[in-house]
Amino acid sequence: MGKRTIKSITNKIIKTKRQIKKLAIKKRQERKIHLIQLGTLFNIMELLDESQEVMLGFLEKYKKLSYQQKQEYFLIGEKILSEREAKTYDDDLDERKKMFFLMIRKAALLEKLKIHLEDSKIILGYLNTFSQLSLEEKKSLEERGKEIFTDKPVRDTIISDEEKMKILKESIIKNINITKLLKDEFNTTIHNIKRSQLALIEEKIRSRI
Question: Does residue 104 share a domain with residue 11?
């Protein structure tokens, strides 16, 4: 193999490496832009300062949404966007950097759960429900979020007596046989409800008419 041939191959390798590097940089930039766009949804709903663990636990439930629920959230998200006034960002560069950092951080949760390619209007409509969560529900979601982050089971504790009383009161108001509900759908009793079950049980009670 002649010197010219070796040099030609070397130049091709160098050129290929440069092209790969450019593509990698472009891909990272595109990902960053997409995450900022998704992060805007959290900014609209004023959720940038919410705990990562709570938000991760909350977003995981998105994966269980039915087609009908997604359509309903799509309409809600569309309405929120249509009524939203154009927002100007802070002139302070440091504040803008901080905001974009938080936006990317929140959007990365969607990426972690592999729901980052879902319709943004549906996601926005779903995020709109976060404000309706009780402190007890957020605690439960936080435990689940920690479990997802660590990939290790977090000790699933029994809910407090106050939380048990709240469930009983709500079931009485809605005329729900809570003993039967817990046994049939959760294989538990009012005395043994686990924290990981709390949010779903409360959701079941709320959905009963």
Answer: yes
Tell me: do 130 and 159 sit in the same domain: no
Q: Is the domain of 74 the same as that of 125? A: yes
**Cα angle: 56, vertex 60, 63; to 5 degrees:** 150
* Nearest one of 9, 43, 28, 41 to 115, comparing CA atoms: 41
Is 8 domain-assigned? yes
Together in a domain, 90 and 17: yes
Q: Does any domain span residue 178?
A: yes
Residue 123: helix, strand or coil by DSSP?
helix
User: What SS3 class is residue 133?
Assistant: coil
pLDDT score for 89: 60
Please check whether residue 123 is in contact with residue 114, taking contact to mean a CB–CB distance below 8 angstroms: no
DSSP track, 142-165: HHHHHHHHHTSPPP-PBPPHHHHH
pLDDT, tens digit, 9 for 90 and up, residues 34-46: 899 999 999 999 9
For 85-144, how does the pLDDT look when each residue is reduced to its tens digit (9 = 90+)?
Answer: 766 666 677 888 889 999 999 999 999 999 999 999 999 999 999 999 999 899 999 999
Q: How far apart are CA 153 and CA 86, in angstroms?
A: 43
Q: How is residue 66 annotated by DSSP?
A: -
Q: What is the pTM of this model?
A: 0.64
Please count the structural domains in the chain: 2
Domain of 123 in residue numbering reads as 3-134
